[in-house]
Amino acid sequence: MTFDSTRAQIRIEPRSPSYWRVIIDQPPFNIFGPDMLPQLNAVVTALETDPHVQVVVFESAVPGFFLTHYDFEPPLEATTSMAPGPTGLPPLPDMLVRIGRMPVISIAKIRGRATGVGSELALASDMRFASRDNALLSQWEIGAGLVPGGGPMTRLSRLIGRGRALEVLTSGNDFDGALAERYGYVNRALPDEELDDFVEALATRIASFDKQSLAVIKRHVNAQTLPPDTSVAPEWDAFIAAVQRPAAREKIAQLMEMGLQKDPDVEARLAHYTGSLWR
C-alpha cells in the first residue's frame, strides 16, 4: 500500500510486502495536531488489515524531531469533536492502543526529540531504538501545568517502574538516548551512525519470519504486559480537563509568547523553557 497525498504528514513507504516504514514528515518540528489524526488512523487501519505486513518502523523525515507535542493553535473542539475510534476510546488513545494490539511488530526509530505525543507513540510501539547522540525523550506536560493524555502514566509505570516513571512524568526533563536506555525507556541506544543499519537489519529479519507465529507471540506477550483500556482512557480525560484549567492556559500562552511552535530554540530546549515559567 502507498499513502499518497500532497498534504500527507504521515506516509507509508513499503520496503517489501512484509516490512513497511511509516514516515512522519511535518516540518519544521513534527508537531502533532488534529489534522494528523485521520492520517495516523489510515496508517493504523492499513497495518491492521493488510494480509502481508509483519513489521513496521515509525521514523521521522524532519531533522532534530521524531514527533513532538500536541498542536495548541487549533481550537480544542477540533480534537474533542472527533468521534471515538473502534476501541471506543477517543482518537489518539484509540490508535495508540491499536498499535499495541495489531498483529504487526512495531518499532520506533527515535532520532531527534520525542516529546509528548512522540514519547507516547514510542511507548505504544513494541520496541524502541534511539540515537545515543541525537535522541531526547520526554513527557513535558507538567511544565505547562498539563497532564499527559496518550497513556504514558500507565505504560511508563509498567515499562520502567514506579519511581522512574514518576521522575519522567513529574520533572518534565529531557532524557537522552543513553539515560533512556539505562532506565528501560528504550530497548537500546546506538551511535547515530549505527542506528539506521541496526533497525533495518532487525526489521528485515523479523519480516522474514512466519506472520502467524509472530502474531501469536505478540498476543501472548500482550496478555502479560499491555494495560487495559480502563487504565488508558482516564489519562485522555485528564489531559482534556487540564488543558482547560486557567493555570495551564496561562502557561501555554506564556510558552506561545516565548516562541513555542515557531522558535527552533524553544522546541529544541523545551524543558529549559517550561522550567523558566515557574521561577
How would you characterize this protein structure?
- 48% of the residues lie in helices and 18% in strands.
- The chain is globular.
- Mean pLDDT is 96; it is low at 1-6.
- 43% of the residues are buried.
- The chain has helices at residues 37-49, 77-80, 91-101, 117-124, 152-160, 162-171, 177-183, 192-207, 211-225, 229-243, 246-258, 264-268, 270-276; strands spanning 10-16, 19-24, 55-60, 65-67, 105-115, 127-138, 175-176, 188-190.
- α1 (37-49) packs parallel to α3 (91-101).
- Strands 1, 2, 3, 4, 5, 6, 7 and 8 form an 8-stranded mixed sheet that branches.
- β1 and β2 form a beta hairpin.
- With 279 residues, the chain is an alpha/beta fold.
Which features does this protein show?
single chain; 279 residues; alpha/beta; 2-enoyl-CoA Hydratase, Chain A, domain 1; eight-stranded mixed beta sheet; globular
The ordered string of helix (H) and strand (E) elements is EEHEEHHEHEHHEHEHHHHHH
CATH homologous superfamily heading = 2-enoyl-CoA Hydratase, Chain A, domain 1
- What's the architecture in CATH terms? Alpha-Beta Complex
> How many E strands?
8
Low-pLDDT stretches are: 1-6
Which CATH class applies here?
Alpha Beta
The CATH topology, please?
Answer: 2-enoyl-CoA Hydratase, Chain A, domain 1
Report the helical percentage: 40-55%
User: In the residues, how many domains can be counted?
Assistant: 1
* Main sheet: strands, sense, barrel: 8 strands, mixed
For the termini, the CA-CA separation is: 50 Å
- Count of helical stretches: 13
Average pLDDT over all residues: 96
Bulk shape: globular
> In angstroms, what is the radius of gyration?
18 Å
Measured by DSSP, the beta-strand proportion falls in 15-25%
